Amino acid sequence: MRNGYNKRWRKKQEESFMHEIKKGENKFYIGEDIKEPIAELTFIESGKNRIVADHTYVSNELRGQGIAGQLVEHLVQYAREKGKVILPECPYVERKLKENLDYHDVLAK
Fold this sequence. Notes:
By secondary structure, this protein is of the alpha+beta class. It has helices at about 1-15, 65-80, 90-100, and strands at about 20-25, 25-30, 40-45, 50-60, 85-90. The chain has a 5-stranded mixed sheet, with helices on one face.
């Protein structure tokens, strides 16, 4: 039983690395069509130093693979590169930023 679980977990991990996260206008997304992504994190750049993260979506086919967390990681890296902080309006993004101490440098206070 345990061995079967490990194989399924490893397969999900491998699948999650196969999806390319792309940068669009005010979003990070996965999919061929930016207008109909299979996963996305949308945001608005507000003022000179703030990003408002307002929505995260992951399709059923990608759920459980850590995709939403990878989208948050891309947003955090983007914020750092731009010297901005993130104001999370999306509950998922808020939870991830607050839970991960490594992200507190970009969490708007």
